[in-house]
Amino acid sequence: MIAHLPILQVVVPLLSAPVCVVLRRHNPVWVLVFLASWTAFFIAVLLLNAVSRAGEIHYVLGGWDPPWGIEYRLDVLSAYLLLIVTAIGAVVISFARESVIREISSDRIYLFYTAYLLNLAGLLGVITTGDVFNMFVFIEISSLSSYALISLGRDRLALLAAYRYLVLGTIGATFFLIGVGLLYVMTGTLNIVDLRARLTDVEHTRTIVTALAFLTVGISLKFALFPLHFWLPGAYTFAPSVVSVFLASTTTKVYIYVMLRFLYSVFNPAFVFDVISLDLVFLVCALLAIFSGSLNAIRQNDVKCMMAYSSIAQIGYMILGVSLVSVTGLLAGIIHLFNHALMKGALFMCLACVYYKTGSVRLGDLRGIGRRMPWTMAAFVVAGLSLVGIPLTVGFISKWYLVLAAIERDWWWLVAAVIAGSLLAVVYIWRVVETAYFRDSDDAKSPARAEVAEAPLSMLIPLWAMIAANLYFGIDTSLTIGLAEQAANYLLGAGP
Amino acid sequence: MNPEMLIACALLVPLAGAVLILLAGGRPDLRESVSIITSGALFVSVVYLIPHVVAGGRPSLHVVELLPGISIGFEIEPAGLLFAAIASLLWVASSVYSIGYMRGNNESHQTRFYAFFALALASTIGVAFAANLLTLFIFYEFLTLTTYPLVTHKGSAEAMRAGRLYLGLLLSTSIGFFLVAIIWTWRIAGTLDFTAGGILPGRIAGGWIAVLLFLYIYGIGKAALMPIHRWLPAAMIAPTPVSALLHAVAVVKAGVFSIVKIIVYVFGTELLADGVHSGWLVGMAGVTIIAASITALYSDNLKRLLAYSTISQLSYVIIAAAILAPLSVLGAVLHIATHAFGKITLFFAAGSIYTATKKTEISQMDGIGRRMPWTMAAFAIGSLSMIGVPPTAGFISKWYILQGALERGSWFSVSVIVVSTLLNAAYLLPIVYAAFFRTGTDHDHAIKEAPLPILLALGFTALGTIAIFLVPESLLEYAGLLQASL
Fold first, then answer.
1. Closest chain B residue by Cα to residue A440
2. Domain range holding B378?
3. Residues B274-303: pLDDT tens digits?
4. Is residue B357 part of a domain?
């Protein structure tokens, strides 16, 4: 049983998905999805435990030895990502029930849960697999299901957003496939370990450089690196609230993981960074992402859209850490994967609560909401402070390492840029806080507004669990820093 | 109780107080009793720590390791204990005062007001007791965030603007400069603990010292060194108890206290002794002292005048620390205490006048001394302490600062202090004169003294200002202890 955990991690949600279609009725479906999500989480915990003892876990599918068969391969980085995705999944599903009933028409709810499980299974598959073509298959599973999830939004614009994402996402996936194809042509293998061994001889050929280019652009499109981010704001804004929570805190992280996998495990990092200088490209894109994302976030009047642009900026921080090509920089990037999932998850959950009660997340409709939904908005303030990077929240830890990494390289201008970016976050978070607490709503007399009360406990408890995690991992950092450091050392040490 | 528990008490009592205040929200009498009891309990826990420190101990409390090698921890040294004792004692006075003020002016959101007040005090204690730079930074940030709702208390457009300026300036300097300086220090020194003699000597040299010092000084916006001082006059929109305790004592003193601590325990006086890298600081503090005094001279709004007076007095502390003579550093720490008593008295008086008459401008206050004799007598005592004349507390610290400046032969500082003393007299004494010796308008006959809680608090701090001068033995004894530790 224990030996089969890597495959169970993927199979449990994957096989639960069709069962949802059979069950159809809301309650049994929800219970099934709830159980599947939490089972996935416990499997991830067990796997993380096993990986930190053994270093690496290999699992051979169907008894076909690699490089001929498909191999599942877990190291600290992938186990860490599994933990992030499954933990968010478990919390989101615990949170989802009421919100889904409110936002998705009742005859489609089972489809929502089916698509969600497929998406989860796809993401988990991408992380566990050690075979690049298998990875492509899982990317497609998670992408197609996420287009479906977004299109479930009540607003008709959700269809447009989903369509846009579909077109751009497909381009990304195609680029990925072209890159994988080129690698296969040159090496005759699809197994990551095998690829690495064989690429050393041919890495300077034009074909491999082309493959790297296709892969980088394709994957960057998937995690919305500036300037390939145009699909993201619409997708996050118009998706059902729960979908925004899940996508914002997992999808982009998984694709950043894919990027790291290719940069460090498939290709030789010395080749990628010293010869091709991809770090410079990432550095420029990351800085542009931070500033364009933050400045756009400040301009938004729809808070969900604001948070979406904020995500673009935060993705910039993660890639910035990667682009510094040092242990501290990589550590900063990897730890921010986890920390950002916690803070953005919490922020989108707050917005889901607000939308559940008021039917709007436009800034103008949030006036005085702090008084009427005190717990929700207190959570928003804490998560917002985490985003800004106030000490004792997870955001501070990320910022600390990012600034430390920049100082280590003596890049003072970069320190200034990182700090400036986080001050921009103060501006947009404070626009919401000010409106919620210090502006009284003009139409307070209208009965619809006056009746607004706190969100149900079934939403508040998962929300505050998320807030507690934001604080806990901002204070007791031994787990997250330990894992991120191990992963960073592993990736950098994996190079020759 | 053992000292570790006392430290925990001092930090947790105000936090628990804030929670209880929120719970007692609906019942004003209960809520305000909780507020007073909390402030008293805090003061008692701080006082009980004094014998441990006087006996030469350095009680400490390790909480958690936040980052590998960097903990959240507290260690009590004489300067921090003095700061905590003053802040908590004056909180008791201000809790009493708040009752009279908030009720007298029918202020809204009083529960929020008392709760955040308690949280701000918890943050202040954290700053005073911090054992390392990271802990100091954490509580410094909390102090900014917990005082923000107090600044925007009114909720008017003007209050929101002031709040934005307050938060914007304090957060951007602390994140932009202070945090960067801390991470830089960690990178080169490998520790952030406050250590006698400093942690930087031998690890940094040349012009970088001046750059790092610059980042620290301007990162600590709460010290209101020009040109980062605008937030303080803006914060005067808050209810007067906030201006009195937080923006004359807790918040601003947390700023200059941090600067003193960083100069003494991070840089170490040896590293800066030649004055090459810290000379600019003496100059800038001197400019701030004079410029702020002149601005005060031209302001008609009483609270604005007092705010600029605070800015100038804060730079006394900075200049004294930057001179780096042992006596002046001692004077810096003492000035944190003595200025607190004088300035809180002045603010209490301003709030008293506002509560009784709704007057805010000095030009409207002719003859008010005859209607409100207690208030204006206290105001006069506070003014004398600002100027630094006997028999008031301000004289003692100024004496030490001047001695230190003379010892170092810093004629610039000596002349700055002399000129500013004249300016202090020029902007404060005319108010006292007009209040007692000019006649007001006919409408003023109806004016009566402010409510009793206000007068009690006011009388207490005014008497304290004189008592420190008349019975200086214990303070001077403590000064000996301080000097040994600095």
1. B155
2. 325-486
3. 777 788 888 888 999 999 999 988 888 888
4. yes
A294, A331, A398, A400, best to mutate vs chain B, most B CBs in 10 Å: A400
Chain A residues within an 8 Å CB radius of B179: 399, 403, 419
> Which residues pair with residue B71 across a beta bridge?
B65
Structural domain contains residue B442: yes
3-state secondary structure of A190: coil
Strand, helix or coil at A271?
helix
CB contacts of B155 in chain A (<8 Å) are 438, 440
CB-closest option in A385, A391, A438 to B160: A438
Q: Are residues A404 and B176, on separate chains, in Cβ contact within 8 Å?
A: no
Angstroms from A440 CA to nearest CA on chain B: 9
Query: Which among B66, B68, B171 has the least Cβ separation from residue A426?
Result: B171
The angle, 0 to 180 degrees and rounded to 10, between the axes of the packed helices A241-260 and A303-323 is 10
Q: Which two tokens stand for residue B391?
A: 């028999």
Rounded to an integer, what distance in angstroms lies between the CA atom of residue A304 and that of residue A249?
14
B160 touches chain A (CB under 8 A): yes
**Calpha distance A485→A331 (Å, rounded):** 6
- pLDDT band at residue A91 using 50, 70 and 90 as cut-offs: very high
Residue B106, pLDDT above cutoff 80: no
Best residue in A403, A411, A483 to probe B by mutation, most B CBs within 10 Å? A403
Q: Which of B168, B172, B187 sits opposite A407 (nearest CB)?
A: B187
**Amino acid code (one letter) for A219:** I
Q: Taking Cα atoms as reference points, which of A258, A191, A249, A190 lies closest to residue A222?
A: A258
Say if residues A112 and A104 touch (Cβ distance below 8 Å). Answer: yes
Distance in angstroms (rounded) separating the CA atoms of residues A234 and B459: 63
B373 domain-assigned: yes
B239 within some domain:
no
Asked whether the ipTM of the predicted complex exceeds the cut of 0.90, the reply is no
Calculate mean pLDDT across residues A213-234: 90
**B26 token code pair:** 């609906």
Rg (CA), chain A: 22
Counting the structural domains of chain B, the total is 1
Domain regions of chain A by residue span: 1-274, 277-496
SS3 A25: coil
